[in-house]
Amino acid sequence: MSRDTLTIIDNRTGQEYEIPIERDTIRGSELNKIKASPDGPGLRTFDVAIANTATCESRITYLDGEGGVLRYRGYPIEELAEQSSFLEVAYLLVKGHLPSASHFDMWQHNIKMHTLVHENVKHFIDGFRYDAHPMGILIGTVGALSTFYPDAKNIDDEESRRVQTRRLIAKIPTIAALAFRHSRGLSYVPPDNDLSYPGNFLSMLFKMTELKYRPDPVLERALDVLFILHADHEQNCSTTTARVVGSAHADPYSVVSAAAAALSGPRHGGASEDVVRMLHECGSVDKVPDLIKSVKAGERRLMGFGHRVYKNYDPRARIIKKIAYEVFEVTGKNPAIDVALELERIALEDDYFVERKLYPNVDFYSGTIYEAMGFQMEMFPVLFAIGRTAGWVAQWAEMLANQERIARPRQVYLGEDLRHYVPLGKREDRSEQETEITGPY
Ligand code: ACO
Protein backbone atom coordinates (compact mmCIF):
# COMPACT_ATOMS: atom_id res chain seq x y z
CA MET A 1 0.00 0.00 0.00
CA SER A 2 1.41 3.40 -0.93
CA ARG A 3 1.91 5.94 1.83
CA ASP A 4 2.71 9.65 1.63
CA THR A 5 5.95 9.22 3.51
CA LEU A 6 9.64 8.95 2.84
CA THR A 7 11.66 6.25 4.57
CA ILE A 8 15.26 7.13 5.27
CA ILE A 9 17.84 4.73 6.67
CA ASP A 10 20.85 6.48 8.17
CA ASN A 11 23.68 4.07 7.36
CA ARG A 12 25.86 5.71 10.00
CA THR A 13 23.59 4.40 12.74
CA GLY A 14 21.30 1.90 10.98
CA GLN A 15 18.36 3.94 12.28
CA GLU A 16 15.23 4.19 10.11
CA TYR A 17 13.10 7.33 9.90
CA GLU A 18 9.71 7.85 8.32
CA ILE A 19 9.09 11.38 7.17
CA PRO A 20 5.70 12.71 5.98
CA ILE A 21 5.45 13.99 2.40
CA GLU A 22 2.97 16.80 1.87
CA ARG A 23 2.49 18.37 -1.57
CA ASP A 24 5.71 16.73 -2.84
CA THR A 25 7.62 18.34 0.00
CA ILE A 26 9.28 17.14 3.18
CA ARG A 27 9.93 19.43 6.11
CA GLY A 28 13.56 20.38 6.68
CA SER A 29 12.95 20.20 10.43
CA GLU A 30 12.24 16.45 10.04
CA LEU A 31 15.76 15.92 8.68
CA ASN A 32 17.10 17.77 11.68
CA LYS A 33 15.96 14.85 13.85
CA ILE A 34 18.40 12.54 12.04
CA LYS A 35 21.61 12.48 14.07
CA ALA A 36 24.75 10.36 14.03
CA SER A 37 24.93 10.66 17.83
CA PRO A 38 22.31 11.93 20.30
CA ASP A 39 24.28 15.14 21.00
CA GLY A 40 25.48 15.68 17.40
CA PRO A 41 24.06 18.14 14.86
CA GLY A 42 20.95 17.15 12.91
CA LEU A 43 21.06 16.41 9.18
CA ARG A 44 20.81 19.41 6.87
CA THR A 45 20.29 19.88 3.15
CA PHE A 46 22.98 21.71 1.19
CA ASP A 47 21.08 23.81 -1.32
CA VAL A 48 23.18 26.63 -2.77
CA ALA A 49 21.05 29.36 -4.36
CA ILE A 50 17.96 27.87 -2.62
CA ALA A 51 17.36 26.01 -5.87
CA ASN A 52 15.26 23.13 -4.53
CA THR A 53 13.91 24.40 -1.23
CA ALA A 54 10.45 25.80 -0.61
CA THR A 55 10.98 28.66 1.83
CA CYS A 56 7.34 29.58 2.42
CA GLU A 57 3.73 28.62 1.88
CA SER A 58 2.10 31.07 -0.49
CA ARG A 59 -1.30 31.57 -2.06
CA ILE A 60 -0.31 34.38 -4.40
CA THR A 61 1.27 33.12 -7.61
CA TYR A 62 1.25 29.69 -9.26
CA LEU A 63 4.08 28.93 -11.65
CA ASP A 64 4.62 25.73 -13.60
CA GLY A 65 7.97 26.21 -15.32
CA GLU A 66 7.84 22.99 -17.30
CA GLY A 67 4.38 23.76 -18.66
CA GLY A 68 4.97 27.51 -19.10
CA VAL A 69 2.00 28.38 -16.85
CA LEU A 70 1.69 31.53 -14.74
CA ARG A 71 -1.35 32.47 -12.63
CA TYR A 72 -1.95 35.24 -10.11
CA ARG A 73 -4.33 34.05 -7.37
CA GLY A 74 -5.52 31.36 -9.81
CA TYR A 75 -6.17 33.68 -12.78
CA PRO A 76 -4.13 32.91 -15.94
CA ILE A 77 -1.69 35.67 -16.82
CA GLU A 78 -3.04 35.67 -20.39
CA GLU A 79 -6.59 36.54 -19.18
CA LEU A 80 -5.33 39.25 -16.86
CA ALA A 81 -3.15 40.78 -19.58
CA GLU A 82 -6.06 40.74 -22.00
CA GLN A 83 -8.86 41.97 -19.73
CA SER A 84 -7.57 43.47 -16.49
CA SER A 85 -5.68 46.62 -15.50
CA PHE A 86 -2.55 46.91 -13.40
CA LEU A 87 -4.34 48.54 -10.47
CA GLU A 88 -6.93 45.76 -10.48
CA VAL A 89 -4.14 43.16 -10.55
CA ALA A 90 -2.41 44.96 -7.68
CA TYR A 91 -5.66 44.70 -5.69
CA LEU A 92 -5.90 41.01 -6.62
CA LEU A 93 -2.36 40.29 -5.47
CA VAL A 94 -2.65 42.23 -2.23
CA LYS A 95 -6.18 41.24 -1.22
CA GLY A 96 -6.50 37.79 -2.80
CA HIS A 97 -9.59 38.35 -4.97
CA LEU A 98 -10.81 40.64 -7.74
CA PRO A 99 -12.60 43.77 -6.48
CA SER A 100 -16.26 44.62 -7.01
CA ALA A 101 -16.81 47.81 -9.04
CA SER A 102 -17.34 49.95 -5.92
CA HIS A 103 -14.33 48.48 -4.09
CA PHE A 104 -12.20 49.06 -7.17
CA ASP A 105 -13.27 52.73 -7.29
CA MET A 106 -12.31 53.06 -3.65
CA TRP A 107 -8.97 51.32 -4.22
CA GLN A 108 -8.13 53.60 -7.18
CA HIS A 109 -9.09 56.64 -5.12
CA ASN A 110 -6.95 55.44 -2.19
CA ILE A 111 -3.93 54.90 -4.44
CA LYS A 112 -4.32 58.27 -6.17
CA MET A 113 -4.46 60.01 -2.78
CA HIS A 114 -0.81 59.03 -2.34
CA THR A 115 0.80 59.81 -5.70
CA LEU A 116 2.51 63.01 -4.48
CA VAL A 117 5.86 62.86 -2.74
CA HIS A 118 7.12 65.18 -0.01
CA GLU A 119 9.02 68.17 -1.46
CA ASN A 120 12.13 67.02 0.38
CA VAL A 121 12.10 63.84 -1.70
CA LYS A 122 12.64 66.04 -4.76
CA HIS A 123 15.54 67.82 -3.06
CA PHE A 124 16.90 64.43 -2.16
CA ILE A 125 16.78 63.36 -5.82
CA ASP A 126 18.37 66.66 -6.87
CA GLY A 127 21.41 65.57 -4.88
CA PHE A 128 22.14 62.71 -7.26
CA ARG A 129 24.64 63.30 -10.07
CA TYR A 130 23.12 64.07 -13.49
CA ASP A 131 24.24 60.65 -14.78
CA ALA A 132 23.17 58.63 -11.72
CA HIS A 133 21.66 55.30 -12.67
CA PRO A 134 17.87 55.68 -12.19
CA MET A 135 17.70 52.27 -10.51
CA GLY A 136 20.20 53.52 -7.91
CA ILE A 137 18.00 56.60 -7.45
CA LEU A 138 14.91 54.41 -7.02
CA ILE A 139 16.58 52.07 -4.52
CA GLY A 140 17.93 54.98 -2.44
CA THR A 141 14.77 57.05 -2.56
CA VAL A 142 12.35 54.24 -1.71
CA GLY A 143 14.57 53.31 1.24
CA ALA A 144 14.57 56.96 2.32
CA LEU A 145 10.75 57.01 2.42
CA SER A 146 10.92 55.20 5.76
CA THR A 147 12.29 58.44 7.23
CA PHE A 148 9.25 60.34 5.91
CA TYR A 149 6.79 57.79 7.29
CA PRO A 150 8.14 56.63 10.65
CA ASP A 151 4.74 54.98 11.34
CA ALA A 152 5.81 52.37 8.76
CA LYS A 153 7.78 50.57 11.42
CA ASN A 154 4.49 49.61 13.11
CA ILE A 155 4.24 46.48 11.05
CA ASP A 156 1.89 44.82 13.56
CA ASP A 157 -0.66 47.57 12.99
CA GLU A 158 -2.97 46.51 10.16
CA GLU A 159 -3.95 50.08 9.28
CA SER A 160 -0.30 51.11 9.04
CA ARG A 161 0.45 48.14 6.76
CA ARG A 162 -2.51 49.08 4.58
CA VAL A 163 -1.48 52.71 4.19
CA GLN A 164 2.20 51.88 3.44
CA THR A 165 1.03 49.41 0.78
CA ARG A 166 -1.02 52.13 -0.92
CA ARG A 167 1.80 54.64 -0.59
CA LEU A 168 4.32 52.28 -2.14
CA ILE A 169 2.15 51.37 -5.14
CA ALA A 170 1.24 55.06 -5.60
CA LYS A 171 4.66 56.63 -5.17
CA ILE A 172 6.86 54.22 -7.12
CA PRO A 173 5.85 55.70 -10.53
CA THR A 174 6.33 59.22 -9.16
CA ILE A 175 9.86 58.40 -7.98
CA ALA A 176 10.62 56.59 -11.25
CA ALA A 177 9.48 59.65 -13.22
CA LEU A 178 11.53 61.98 -10.99
CA ALA A 179 14.60 59.82 -11.69
CA PHE A 180 13.88 59.96 -15.43
CA ARG A 181 13.39 63.74 -15.50
CA HIS A 182 16.51 64.20 -13.36
CA SER A 183 18.56 62.27 -15.92
CA ARG A 184 17.24 64.57 -18.67
CA GLY A 185 17.68 67.79 -16.72
CA LEU A 186 13.92 68.43 -16.97
CA SER A 187 11.69 70.05 -14.36
CA TYR A 188 9.53 67.67 -12.36
CA VAL A 189 5.91 67.14 -13.35
CA PRO A 190 3.39 66.63 -10.54
CA PRO A 191 0.97 63.69 -10.74
CA ASP A 192 -2.26 64.18 -12.69
CA ASN A 193 -4.87 62.14 -10.87
CA ASP A 194 -7.45 62.58 -13.66
CA LEU A 195 -5.39 60.11 -15.64
CA SER A 196 -5.09 56.36 -15.25
CA TYR A 197 -2.14 54.85 -13.36
CA PRO A 198 -0.02 54.34 -16.53
CA GLY A 199 -1.43 57.51 -18.13
CA ASN A 200 -0.33 59.60 -15.15
CA PHE A 201 3.07 57.93 -15.26
CA LEU A 202 3.45 58.87 -18.96
CA SER A 203 2.43 62.44 -18.07
CA MET A 204 5.00 62.69 -15.26
CA LEU A 205 7.64 61.39 -17.70
CA PHE A 206 6.96 63.15 -20.95
CA LYS A 207 4.82 66.26 -20.30
CA MET A 208 6.54 69.37 -21.62
CA THR A 209 4.80 72.76 -21.95
CA GLU A 210 1.28 71.62 -22.77
CA LEU A 211 -1.37 72.41 -20.15
CA LYS A 212 -2.74 68.87 -20.13
CA TYR A 213 -0.84 65.78 -21.20
CA ARG A 214 -2.93 63.32 -23.21
CA PRO A 215 -1.31 59.89 -23.26
CA ASP A 216 -1.51 57.83 -26.43
CA PRO A 217 -4.06 55.08 -25.58
CA VAL A 218 -1.95 52.34 -27.21
CA LEU A 219 1.16 53.27 -25.22
CA GLU A 220 -0.90 53.72 -22.05
CA ARG A 221 -2.40 50.24 -22.42
CA ALA A 222 0.97 48.69 -23.40
CA LEU A 223 2.57 50.06 -20.24
CA ASP A 224 -0.35 48.86 -18.13
CA VAL A 225 -0.02 45.33 -19.55
CA LEU A 226 3.74 45.38 -19.00
CA PHE A 227 3.12 46.30 -15.35
CA ILE A 228 0.64 43.40 -15.08
CA LEU A 229 3.15 40.95 -16.55
CA HIS A 230 5.85 42.06 -14.13
CA ALA A 231 3.62 42.27 -11.05
CA ASP A 232 4.61 39.01 -9.39
CA HIS A 233 6.58 35.86 -10.06
CA GLU A 234 6.47 33.83 -6.85
CA GLN A 235 9.74 33.30 -4.97
CA ASN A 236 12.23 34.88 -7.38
CA CYS A 237 15.44 36.53 -6.17
CA SER A 238 13.98 39.97 -5.38
CA THR A 239 10.79 38.59 -3.81
CA THR A 240 12.81 36.24 -1.65
CA THR A 241 14.88 39.27 -0.64
CA ALA A 242 11.67 41.09 0.28
CA ARG A 243 10.48 38.20 2.44
CA VAL A 244 13.88 37.72 4.08
CA VAL A 245 14.29 41.41 4.93
CA GLY A 246 10.65 41.58 6.01
CA SER A 247 11.11 38.55 8.25
CA ALA A 248 13.49 40.67 10.36
CA HIS A 249 10.50 43.03 10.80
CA ALA A 250 12.15 45.87 8.87
CA ASP A 251 9.70 48.52 7.64
CA PRO A 252 8.15 48.01 4.17
CA TYR A 253 10.15 50.82 2.51
CA SER A 254 13.39 49.10 3.51
CA VAL A 255 11.86 45.82 2.31
CA VAL A 256 10.98 47.20 -1.13
CA SER A 257 14.28 49.04 -1.44
CA ALA A 258 16.18 45.81 -0.70
CA ALA A 259 14.04 43.89 -3.18
CA ALA A 260 14.69 46.54 -5.84
CA ALA A 261 18.43 46.24 -5.16
CA ALA A 262 18.19 42.51 -5.89
CA LEU A 263 16.15 43.22 -9.01
CA SER A 264 18.81 45.61 -10.35
CA GLY A 265 21.31 42.79 -10.94
CA PRO A 266 21.97 41.71 -14.55
CA ARG A 267 20.94 38.15 -13.77
CA HIS A 268 17.52 39.44 -12.71
CA GLY A 269 15.64 42.60 -13.77
CA GLY A 270 18.86 44.29 -14.88
CA ALA A 271 18.89 41.83 -17.79
CA SER A 272 16.26 43.95 -19.59
CA GLU A 273 18.87 46.67 -19.95
CA ASP A 274 21.59 44.28 -21.08
CA VAL A 275 19.35 42.64 -23.71
CA VAL A 276 18.97 45.87 -25.69
CA ARG A 277 22.64 46.69 -25.21
CA MET A 278 23.43 43.26 -26.66
CA LEU A 279 20.99 43.73 -29.58
CA HIS A 280 22.61 47.07 -30.45
CA GLU A 281 26.11 45.63 -30.16
CA CYS A 282 25.08 42.84 -32.50
CA GLY A 283 23.74 45.52 -34.85
CA SER A 284 22.15 43.56 -37.68
CA VAL A 285 20.53 40.25 -38.51
CA ASP A 286 23.57 39.01 -40.48
CA LYS A 287 25.73 39.28 -37.32
CA VAL A 288 23.41 37.06 -35.28
CA PRO A 289 25.27 33.80 -36.09
CA ASP A 290 28.49 35.37 -34.72
CA LEU A 291 26.71 36.33 -31.50
CA ILE A 292 25.29 32.82 -31.13
CA LYS A 293 28.79 31.43 -31.73
CA SER A 294 30.30 33.54 -28.95
CA VAL A 295 27.49 32.49 -26.57
CA LYS A 296 28.09 28.82 -27.35
CA ALA A 297 31.82 29.30 -26.87
CA GLY A 298 31.01 30.46 -23.34
CA GLU A 299 32.27 34.01 -24.00
CA ARG A 300 28.97 35.61 -23.01
CA ARG A 301 25.38 34.80 -22.11
CA LEU A 302 22.45 35.42 -24.36
CA MET A 303 20.74 38.04 -22.23
CA GLY A 304 16.97 37.65 -21.92
CA PHE A 305 17.31 33.91 -22.38
CA GLY A 306 17.09 31.19 -19.76
CA HIS A 307 15.33 31.01 -16.44
CA ARG A 308 15.79 29.13 -13.20
CA VAL A 309 12.21 27.89 -13.24
CA TYR A 310 10.90 28.11 -16.82
CA LYS A 311 12.07 25.21 -18.92
CA ASN A 312 9.55 26.22 -21.56
CA TYR A 313 8.59 29.46 -23.32
CA ASP A 314 7.97 32.17 -20.70
CA PRO A 315 4.25 33.00 -21.22
CA ARG A 316 5.01 36.65 -20.48
CA ALA A 317 7.52 36.84 -23.36
CA ARG A 318 4.82 35.63 -25.77
CA ILE A 319 2.45 38.44 -24.69
CA ILE A 320 5.18 41.08 -24.76
CA LYS A 321 6.19 40.09 -28.29
CA LYS A 322 2.63 40.78 -29.43
CA ILE A 323 2.48 44.16 -27.66
CA ALA A 324 5.75 45.18 -29.34
CA TYR A 325 4.05 45.33 -32.73
CA GLU A 326 1.12 47.35 -31.38
CA VAL A 327 3.55 49.86 -29.89
CA PHE A 328 5.64 50.06 -33.08
CA GLU A 329 2.45 51.03 -34.98
CA VAL A 330 2.54 54.25 -32.93
CA THR A 331 6.25 54.85 -32.37
CA GLY A 332 7.71 53.37 -35.55
CA LYS A 333 9.56 50.06 -35.54
CA ASN A 334 12.54 49.56 -33.29
CA PRO A 335 15.09 47.87 -35.61
CA ALA A 336 16.43 45.94 -32.61
CA ILE A 337 13.33 43.72 -32.84
CA ASP A 338 14.60 42.16 -36.10
CA VAL A 339 17.85 41.15 -34.40
CA ALA A 340 15.85 39.79 -31.43
CA LEU A 341 13.55 37.73 -33.68
CA GLU A 342 16.48 36.26 -35.59
CA LEU A 343 18.27 35.44 -32.32
CA GLU A 344 15.19 33.67 -31.06
CA ARG A 345 14.70 31.80 -34.36
CA ILE A 346 18.27 30.49 -34.44
CA ALA A 347 18.47 29.78 -30.70
CA LEU A 348 15.26 27.77 -30.62
CA GLU A 349 16.64 25.46 -33.33
CA ASP A 350 20.14 25.17 -31.91
CA ASP A 351 21.11 22.11 -29.84
CA TYR A 352 22.96 24.21 -27.25
CA PHE A 353 19.79 26.08 -26.30
CA VAL A 354 17.40 23.17 -26.90
CA GLU A 355 19.36 20.77 -24.65
CA ARG A 356 19.55 23.35 -21.86
CA LYS A 357 15.91 24.33 -22.35
CA LEU A 358 16.81 27.99 -22.80
CA TYR A 359 13.88 30.09 -24.04
CA PRO A 360 13.25 33.85 -24.18
CA ASN A 361 12.26 35.21 -20.78
CA VAL A 362 10.23 38.30 -19.83
CA ASP A 363 13.18 40.61 -20.47
CA PHE A 364 13.92 39.53 -24.03
CA TYR A 365 11.36 41.72 -25.82
CA SER A 366 10.36 44.28 -23.16
CA GLY A 367 13.41 46.50 -23.78
CA THR A 368 12.65 46.94 -27.48
CA ILE A 369 9.22 48.34 -26.48
CA TYR A 370 10.60 50.61 -23.78
CA GLU A 371 13.26 51.94 -26.12
CA ALA A 372 10.68 52.68 -28.83
CA MET A 373 8.63 54.57 -26.23
CA GLY A 374 11.58 56.87 -25.48
CA PHE A 375 13.16 55.33 -22.38
CA GLN A 376 16.92 55.05 -22.06
CA MET A 377 18.13 51.53 -21.23
CA GLU A 378 18.91 52.41 -17.61
CA MET A 379 15.19 53.00 -17.03
CA PHE A 380 14.18 49.44 -17.96
CA PRO A 381 14.75 47.83 -14.53
CA VAL A 382 12.97 50.81 -12.96
CA LEU A 383 9.89 50.06 -15.07
CA PHE A 384 10.12 46.44 -13.98
CA ALA A 385 10.23 47.57 -10.34
CA ILE A 386 7.02 49.61 -10.72
CA GLY A 387 5.01 46.51 -11.61
CA ARG A 388 6.83 44.22 -9.18
CA THR A 389 6.18 46.51 -6.21
CA ALA A 390 2.60 45.15 -6.10
CA GLY A 391 4.00 41.62 -5.78
CA TRP A 392 6.63 42.56 -3.21
CA VAL A 393 4.09 44.21 -0.90
CA ALA A 394 1.64 41.31 -1.33
CA GLN A 395 4.35 38.78 -0.49
CA TRP A 396 5.57 40.88 2.44
CA ALA A 397 2.03 41.08 3.87
CA GLU A 398 1.53 37.33 3.39
CA MET A 399 4.84 36.59 5.12
CA LEU A 400 3.72 38.68 8.12
CA ALA A 401 0.23 37.12 8.13
CA ASN A 402 1.83 33.66 8.15
CA GLN A 403 3.83 34.78 11.22
CA GLU A 404 6.99 33.46 9.63
CA ARG A 405 10.07 33.31 11.83
CA ILE A 406 13.14 35.37 10.97
CA ALA A 407 14.85 33.87 7.90
CA ARG A 408 18.04 32.24 9.02
CA PRO A 409 19.60 29.62 6.70
CA ARG A 410 22.47 27.39 7.77
CA GLN A 411 25.88 26.80 6.19
CA VAL A 412 28.38 24.04 5.67
CA TYR A 413 31.45 25.41 7.45
CA LEU A 414 34.67 24.79 5.51
CA GLY A 415 36.90 27.26 7.34
CA GLU A 416 39.77 26.88 9.76
CA ASP A 417 39.52 24.78 12.90
CA LEU A 418 40.35 26.48 16.21
CA ARG A 419 43.56 28.55 16.05
CA HIS A 420 45.01 31.14 18.40
CA TYR A 421 45.70 34.83 17.88
CA VAL A 422 49.31 35.75 16.98
CA PRO A 423 50.40 39.38 17.69
CA LEU A 424 50.91 41.50 14.54
CA GLY A 425 54.69 41.75 14.85
CA LYS A 426 55.05 37.98 15.00
CA ARG A 427 53.14 37.11 11.81
CA GLU A 428 54.81 35.99 8.57
CA ASP A 429 53.84 37.43 5.13
CA ARG A 430 51.41 35.10 3.40
CA SER A 431 52.04 33.88 -0.13
CA GLU A 432 49.93 35.43 -2.96
CA GLN A 433 48.32 32.06 -3.54
CA GLU A 434 47.01 31.90 0.01
CA THR A 435 45.64 35.44 -0.21
CA GLU A 436 43.74 34.65 -3.42
CA ILE A 437 41.58 32.08 -1.65
CA THR A 438 39.54 34.81 0.01
CA GLY A 439 40.22 37.51 -2.57
CA PRO A 440 42.34 40.67 -2.47
CA TYR A 441 40.50 42.81 0.05
N1 ACO B 1 22.96 32.15 -22.39
C1 ACO B 1 23.76 31.09 -22.58
N2 ACO B 1 23.83 30.01 -21.79
C2 ACO B 1 23.01 30.02 -20.73
C3 ACO B 1 22.12 31.07 -20.45
C4 ACO B 1 22.11 32.16 -21.33
N3 ACO B 1 21.30 33.20 -21.15
N4 ACO B 1 21.43 30.80 -19.33
C5 ACO B 1 21.87 29.62 -18.90
N5 ACO B 1 22.82 29.14 -19.75
C6 ACO B 1 23.48 27.84 -19.67
C7 ACO B 1 24.58 27.85 -18.61
O1 ACO B 1 25.83 28.24 -19.14
C8 ACO B 1 24.55 26.42 -18.15
O2 ACO B 1 25.21 25.63 -19.10
P1 ACO B 1 26.15 24.41 -18.63
O3 ACO B 1 25.21 23.43 -18.01
O4 ACO B 1 26.80 23.93 -19.86
O5 ACO B 1 27.10 24.99 -17.63
C9 ACO B 1 23.07 26.05 -18.22
O6 ACO B 1 22.52 26.90 -19.25
C10 ACO B 1 22.30 26.26 -16.92
O7 ACO B 1 22.52 27.62 -16.51
P2 ACO B 1 22.54 28.12 -15.01
O8 ACO B 1 23.38 29.34 -14.92
O9 ACO B 1 22.87 26.96 -14.10
O10 ACO B 1 21.03 28.46 -14.81
P3 ACO B 1 20.42 29.28 -13.60
O11 ACO B 1 19.07 28.73 -13.37
O12 ACO B 1 21.35 29.31 -12.44
O13 ACO B 1 20.35 30.77 -14.15
C11 ACO B 1 19.60 32.72 -15.23
C12 ACO B 1 19.20 31.37 -14.61
C13 ACO B 1 20.41 33.55 -14.24
C14 ACO B 1 18.33 33.48 -15.57
C15 ACO B 1 20.42 32.44 -16.53
O14 ACO B 1 19.65 31.70 -17.45
C16 ACO B 1 20.95 33.72 -17.14
O15 ACO B 1 22.00 34.21 -16.75
N6 ACO B 1 20.22 34.30 -18.16
C17 ACO B 1 20.62 35.54 -18.76
C18 ACO B 1 20.22 36.69 -17.87
C19 ACO B 1 18.74 36.93 -17.89
O16 ACO B 1 18.10 36.99 -18.93
N7 ACO B 1 18.17 37.11 -16.69
C20 ACO B 1 16.74 37.42 -16.52
C21 ACO B 1 16.01 36.26 -15.96
S1 ACO B 1 14.29 36.59 -15.87
C22 ACO B 1 14.19 37.65 -14.58
O17 ACO B 1 14.87 37.62 -13.63
C23 ACO B 1 13.24 38.65 -14.68
Overall description:
The protein has a 3-stranded antiparallel sheet. Strands 1-2 form a two-stranded antiparallel sheet. Helix 2 runs antiparallel to helix 9, helix 9 runs antiparallel to helix 14 and helix 10 crosses helix 18. The model has no long low-confidence stretch (mean pLDDT 96). The protein is 51% helix and 5% strand. It has 2 domains: 41 residues, no CATH class; 345 residues, Orthogonal Bundle (Citrate Synthase, domain 1). Strand 1 and strand 2 form a beta hairpin. The chain is mainly alpha-helical and 441 residues long. The chain binds acetyl coenzyme *A.
Question: Which features characterize this protein?
Answer:
binds acetyl coenzyme *A, 3-stranded antiparallel sheet, 5 strands, 51% helix, two-stranded antiparallel ribbon, 2 domains, Citrate Synthase, domain 1, globular, 441 residues, mainly alpha
Can you describe this structure in just a few lines?
With 441 residues, this protein is mainly α. The chain has two domains: 5-45, no CATH class; 59-403, Citrate Synthase, domain 1, CATH 1.10.580.10.
